[in-house]
Amino acid sequence: MSPPAAGAAATSGDGPPSSPRELYTIPASSGWFRWDGIHETERRALPEFFGGAGGAGFGTATRNPRIYREYRDFIIARYREDPARRLTFTEVRRALVGDVTLLRKLFAFLDASGLINFSASSSSSGTASRQQEVGVVVEAPVGLQVTPRPPASYFAEEKRGGAGEERENGFRLPPLTSYSDVFGEWTPGKVPICGFCGEECNDEKFETLQDGFKVCSKCSKSNNDNKEEGNKCPGDKKESVDNHASSAWTDAETLLLLEGVLKHGDDWDLIAQHVRTKNKSECIARLIQLPFGEHMLGTINGKSVSRLHMNQATDGKMNQHITKESSSHSTEMVDGMQIDGNEDSADKSVEEHPPTKRRRLFSSMDATASLMEKLALLTTSSSPDVVAAAADAAIKALGNENPQARKAFRLSEREFKTKAFASNHAQQIDHKVGNKDVEMHGRTGSDKKQEKKFIANAYQVRAAVATAIGVAAARAKMLADQEEREMELLMASIIETQLRKMQYKIKHYEELELVMEQEHATSQQVKGSLVNEWLKVLEQAFRTGVSLPRDELLIKLFLNQSTA
Amino acid sequence: MKTVSLGASRPSTVNFRMPTRDNLVPIRVDIEVDGQRYRDAFTWNPRDPDSEIISFAKRTAKDLKLPANFVPQMLQSIQGQLAEFRSYEGQEMQIKEKIVPLKIDLRVNNTVIRDQFLWDIGNLDSDPEEFARTLCDDLNITDPEVGPAIAVSIREQLYEIASQSVSVMREKQLSKKGRRAPEFSSNSKAVNNAVDLFKYFGSKGSVIRKRKEWYLYEPVVDVVANEEDGKEEPNNSSRPKKRAEEEKVASLQSL
């Protein structure tokens, strides 16, 4: 309800019941109200009284404008006897003859429009001015008092409109209940819910991990795939399951994590302390996996950062792990011709960290891992030339962006040149990453070099990603071109077919026309012969002097024909 | 202002239904098994599949901790009443404006409520539940069972009137004489003495009731002390909560 507008005061001087002039406050939105008329708003709101929908026609005995005004005026006058008091429908209806349903609608309308009960709630201000002598003296309502509405409505409104209408067309939907059973037993225990995919495991096969975490058969299969993948890396076979269990985040932990992020920004040590049950990298990985993780970090850091950027910015260690990931990947992908030492050192680099940690990272870093895989796949799916070009472009761009990166790449380039990688052009990038990783490991002993390596690796990863994306873009472009060509080809063939169709049609019509012409000629001939025959007949008739009974008719017909 | 010719509104015939907005049937169950008595009243949507009745009966018995042999009886009772309603459904009934006084005289738990008001049975937009809710709001009745009880009571009366109008229609059709004036047929049964429309709604009448009649159409609420109840219902030992006029609208239906 709008606040009481000062100007919107209806004087009831000409109003029927209360004769002295009084000032009443009604909301500005109800300024249309007049004692001596019925406004369009009222007609629209209560069409029953005015022959609209819902009413049984215009002139019914109990519903017409006169009755409406009588009701309305009474209710309003009744309220104005004591504007500070809330008028209730129950009080009103005892004094009015009529259908309570209709009366209630009318009452609700007046109530909603503020014509009654408007200043009832803000009674304190009105009490001072309200005590004026009123024309009608009414006894105090029995058993009624000013009450606030009970807040809880104890039975919900039933909305089942149209349910009662019988469909005439014979088609009926299968019967459905008209209610939803909120009191039904909820049986979450009956069907276990998979902790990974969140779906109900309908079949009996599901595994329960140590901490009561249920995994359905589908997920556990893919889980095993993960394990197999993991088994290729020596030393982390056993931990894989345990870490899967412990890497599952509960809602409470996630909440703690979010709290920590909000409180500490990107100080991951503090955040990990806040979460307590998880370590730093797990927290980071989790935040990345959360659908809004990047967005949150972006707002915290004051700039929007891409996922890899963020990794780099927040924790250099992450990069290291990712690099490890890619390096191990590359070693997996390399065929038997690969240098043995390469693989050894790759393993060594893996084992540098405690296997559990690495594995955990792997499992919880699924998104990143699959990204790298995808990148590798993308890279291999295109021709070597494209890859090389893309790699060049990526490195150049990175170099322009950051001189340090250029340095790092120049360094690695030199190393790269010393190595022979005649074959496997396609995997060049991955090899490069892996090899450099290895080379660095082999060569650098001091901590300083190690530090440098991390930076270099970071740029290499970025280069690899950029390359892969570039390749993918190139490939997509190629595919698009091809598609376009194909589309053109198809379009041309369609047009050609259409043309041929048109030609056939034209031919057909020509034939038809010929046939029509022939028929026309024959019909003309027949017409001529008919005329001749008639002439003969008439001649004969004249000659004999016998008038045919249908003479006139025939002549008329003949004349008509000839004129036509 | 226009003068409106009085006279009955054009009656229209529709297939039988509750003369309310929601076509809900009032159901009253009163069964006794092994000395235990179960009384209840609620509304039911006749469009609901019948398979819902059994689940409702089971649920009710479980909620009220009734023995299982109540269930078949409840089922029977509900199904019987629904079958009766459906037997009317194929027939036609006349919908025309007819304002009848409805009376409420209920005792729900500790609340006794008496009331009388006018109801237009030709108004297919009426909503007993909403009316009952408004009443309880206005009177500040907090017992949540009162409102539904009032609504069911209204529905029962409407149901009776509607079913009578159906049988009147049938009678008229059967005795093809057509001599029965509509007034006569409507008075033939105990169809409530409809309000004389002319008296109040005519150009000389007034819809404002005489002041001395107000008390007739005013709800009266009494709160009865608890001690009385024990005396009234000696055979209800196992279920002290259910009392004479206690009614309960199935929470299912009102959701």
UniProtKB/TrEMBL annotation, chain A:
It comes from the Eukaryota. GO terms for molecular function: DNA binding. Residues 1-21, 221-242, 318-360 are annotated as: Disordered. One of its GO terms (cellular component) is nucleus. The keyword Transcription regulation applies. Residues 241-291 form the Myb-like domain. InterPro entries: Homeodomain-like_sf (IPR009057), SANT/Myb (IPR001005), SANT_dom (IPR017884), SMARCC_C (IPR032451), SWIRM (IPR007526), WH-like_DNA-bd_sf (IPR036388). The keyword Nucleus applies. Residues 244-295 form the SANT domain. Residues 1-16 have a biased composition (Low complexity). Keywords: DNA-binding, Nucleus, Transcription, Transcription regulation. Residues 224-242, 345-355 have a biased composition (Basic and acidic residues). Residues 24-127 form the SWIRM domain. PROSITE patterns: MYB_LIKE, SANT, SWIRM. This is SWI/SNF complex subunit SWI3A. It comes from Setaria italica (Foxtail millet).
UniProtKB/TrEMBL annotation, chain B:
GO terms for biological process: chromatin remodeling; regulation of transcription by RNA polymerase II. GO terms for molecular function: transcription coregulator activity. Keywords: Nucleus, Transcription, Transcription regulation. Transmembrane segments: none annotated. It is found in: Nucleus. GO terms for cellular component: nuclear chromosome; nucleus. Residues 226-255 are annotated as: Disordered. It holds the Pfam family SNF5. Its main location: nucleus. The keyword Glycoprotein does not apply. Belongs to the SNF5 family. This is Chromatin structure-remodeling complex protein BSH. It comes from Setaria italica (Foxtail millet). The gene is LOC101772645.
